[in-house]
Specification:
The chain is an alpha+beta fold and 110 residues long. The chain contains 4 helices and 5 strands; from the N terminus they run βααββααββ. This is L-rhamnose mutarotase.
Length: 110
């Protein structure tokens, strides 16, 4: 399983609403993510709006394409676009700035 980390910028004036929306991610959106190959997906948000995402997938590009083919993702991305800066009208899930992994500590096998 490959690990991916990305960042986006949430509008500082929309942070509370963005957090609220992610407290209640639609069940069909969660199912679509799982079915599309997204694993251990987490979002972290700094108080200035810097959003860091972490996800594991066999192939992120394939997982993103599978999500793009779902109706629920189209609806979700349409609603989420207004929360971000610097994405030039693209859906947030097509605007990730992937960060290179420079260190990883693996667990010791018992």
């Amino acid at each position: 399983m490959n690990r991916y980390c990305f960042c986006l910028q949430v509008r500082p004036d929309r942070l509370d609403e963005y957090v609220d929306r992610h407290r209640n991610v639609w069940p069909d959106m969660q199912a679509a993510l799982r079915d599309s190959g997204w694993h251990n997906y987490s979002l972290f948000l700094r108080d200035d709006g810097l959003l860091i995402g972490y996800v594991e997938a066999e192939d992120l590009d394939a997982a993103q394409k599978a999500m793009a083919a779902t109706e629920v993702n189209t609806r979700w991305q349409s609603e989420m676009t207004e929360f971000f800066t610097g994405i030039d009208g693209r859906p947030p899930d097509e605007s990730f700035l992937l960060l290179p992994e420079i260190f990883h500590l693996t667990a010791l096998d018992s």
